Amino acid sequence: MTAGADEFGMEELGPNNFRCEVAIANDQGLHMRPAGDFAALALTFECDIYVHKGNQHVDGKAPMDLLTLAAEFGERLVLEARGRDAKRALAALAGYTRAGFPERKPAT
Question: Given this model, what pLDDT does residue 9 score?
Fold first, then answer.
């Protein structure tokens, strides 16, 4: 956990701007189904979502962008959210990632 981060590893960078570090907990890494589910979840929030891996930075609301990270089991990503729902979005996306990308039920 970085200095200034809360108990969930979330660090406030400024007003409505948060980031946290997560490790890929799924044995198959960030593959097609979880990339699509991650992006679908990200789209439910009114904020910009960015995912960083090393020098790569991608739009967390774009599944194909997420796939370009080629993130494997155990690799660390930094999630960043900016905007009105930033803190809620980051909590949901970090939780989903830390849980190993469980299957999401379609909205009814």
Answer: 79
Nearest to 96 by CA among 17, 10, 26, 14: 26
Whether residue 52 has pLDDT greater than 80: yes
Neighbours of 39 (CB within 10 A): 21
Bridge partners of 14?
Answer: 17
What is the pLDDT at residue 56? 97
Domains and CATH numbers, the chain: 20-98 (3.30.1340.10)
| 104 close to 40: Cβ distance less than 8 angstroms | yes
HSE-up (13 A, CA, CB side) for residue 25: 12
Taking the C-alpha atoms of residue 105 and residue 54, their distance in angstroms, rounded to an integer, is 31
Question: How does DSSP assign the chain, residue by residue?
Answer: --TTB-TTS-EEEETTEEEEEEE--STT-S-HHHHHHHHHHHTTSSSEEEEEETTEEEETT-HHHHHTT-PPTT-EEEEEEESTTHHHHHHHHHHHHHTT-PPPPPP-
